[in-house]
Amino acid sequence: MNIRDIPVRTLADAPTTLAELAGDKALLIVNVASRCGLTPQYAGLVRLQQTYADRGFTVVGVPCNQFMGQEPGSAQEIQEFCSTTYGVDFPLLAKADVNGEDRHPLYASLTPVPDADGEAGDVRWNFEKFLVSREGEVSARFRPATEPGDPAVIAAIEKSL
Question: Any catalytic annotation for residue 64?
Answer without folding.
Answer: no
